[in-house]
Amino acid sequence: MKAMVFRGPNRRSWEDVPDPVVVAPTDAVVRVTAATICGTDLHILNGDVPEVEPGRVLGHEAVGVVESVGAAVTSIKPGDRVLVSCISGCGRCEYCRTGASGQCRGGGGWLLGHLVDGTHAEYVRVPFADFSTHRLPDEVTDGDAVMLSDILPTAYEVGVLNGRVRPGQAVVVVGAGPIGLAAIETARLFSPGLIVAVDLAKPRLEAAKRFGADVTVHADEDVDDLVADLTGGLGADLAIEAVGVPETFELCARLIRPGGRVANVGVHGGPVTLHLERLWIRNATITTGLVDTYSTPMLLRMLAAGRLEATGFATHHFALDEMALAYDTFARSAETGALKVVLTR
Prior knowledge:
Blueprint: E1 2-8, E2 11-16, E3 28-36, H1 39-45, E4 62-69, E5 81-84, H2 94-97, E6 123-126, H3 129-132, E7 133-135, H4 142-145, H5 151-161, E8 170-174, H6 178-187, E9 194-199, H7 202-211, E10 215-218, H8 223-230, E11 236-241, H9 246-255, E12 256-264, H10 276-279, E13 285-287, H11 296-304, E14 314-319, H12 323-331, H13 333-336, E15 340-344
Parallel strand pairs: 8-9, 8-11, 9-10, 11-12, 12-13, 14-15
Antiparallel strand pairs: 1-2, 3-4, 3-6, 3-15, 4-5, 5-7
């Protein structure tokens, strides 16, 4: 089959690789019908995730049709259309039993495109398939469903729920890429009084307005003063970091009020300065996290019921065999205006 293979920092190749097969009795093999590229894939290509070895098939987001299953798989069967989650939980360890599958100690966690071959291919082997796939209702399209592989549960769990959004509160989302937009959309489920979006790209700020931001501000402007003005001098109750660079994390830490919270969602490839000399006295809370995907079934029900918007994330569409072009388009998002690129076959 064809797959997008990581060949080392800043090197990737759409090439022939062996077809995946069921290895463990808990595996499934899925024929990929839709996939999308994540900012984390770009971090991997930049060398920010050293656990990813050259030769690894990239990708952790997909929708597809089950081709085969291992003897222990009971919840799906060949022919089922499924969402492939970015997290593969064993379902048995202490972490999985408490809904923290991202920290699975039974051989799972973030595997696809990280520790095992991923979804940017014609077929993918999905470990722990009973806990790592979700059968899709007919009314949910592949293109919408693939947004539930990662960005929507990640933004909701690691940004909105970890950040404890409450009605009437002031929320600042730093980074209006796909994760930031998903954070804006899912934060609105809790009726905050104000959502401010910060980004460097005008098209992404325009998208933030469409997804529900009340105020948008270019990152080159005086964001600190604007947030202070909007909040009576107090600052934000919550700042969600959705970029993954030192400057945006430090901005979030400056923007929160006493007792405020920073929810870091971005993938950081280097160290960040934590200004405890300022924060220690302000009752600040900082949370980090890898998505656990425990919210995926609920988000899927909302999507099927028309209570969640997913179509607007996809700005560019490609055939699956145009993977190289899709990567190039997504990597140059400042020029192309790409939010999420969707590949189908």
